[in-house]
Every structure is written in C-alpha cells, then in structure tokens.
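User: Can you predict the 3D structure for this chain?
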Amino acid sequence: QVQLVESGGGLVQPGGSLRLSCAASGRTSSSYPMGWFRQGPGKEREFVAAIRSSGGRTPYADSVKGRFTISRENAKNTVYLQMNSLKPEDTAVYYCAASRAFSTTPTRIYEYDYWGQGTQVTVSS
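Assistant: Here is the predicted structure, written as structure tokens:
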C-alpha cells in the first residue's frame, strides 16, 4: 500500500503564497505520476496539477495556470505545489494523489489509485 501525507496548508491573505508538500511512503514507485486535487466547500473534487516521474509533463487546471507550479524530488519521494497569487476561490482541502499509469500524466480522479488525507488551504482577508 502507498501512503501519501500532505502538509503545508494554512491561512493566507489574498495575493499570498503557500507551498504544499506530499510525502510518499510504503510500496510506492518513482515511476508513478503524481497529482494535486482540491475540494472547496460545497464543491466537487477537481483537478489542479499533475506531473510525470520525469517531470516533463505538467498539466494544470485553467484556473491555476500561471499561479501554481507542481514539482517533485524523486529521491525524497516528495511532490510539491507552489501556490502564488492566491485568491479566495482557491480555498479548499488540497489532496495529493498517485497513479499506477506511469506512462501518462493523468488529470481525472478515476485515473488515480492512491490518495492522501488532504491539507486545508484558506485564503481570506
């Protein structure tokens, strides 16, 4: 089983920045694509960003393009989400996920097999 643990969430003012981290452990593979999803209050869980093991493909949701950056350090089994210019609508629980589809860069919930428990991000003045 693969365990994913998110950290780095918190309260930030609009325009501020946060960096989320996701540490993987257990029987994980460095070839697994990794992704970030979020679920705001009263909303469905939605795709945010994804990255292949090589780091070569990084699709983003239109709502975060130019503001968020996904990256990973395979030696540390860790994926990051740098969030800049945060907006109130970014308020959500952010989830890290891993996919067994190592040859692709999944962007849909059903394409992911392992999930963390989430970290809260609140953007408010």
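The first strand starts at residue 2 and ends at 7. The mean pLDDT is 93.
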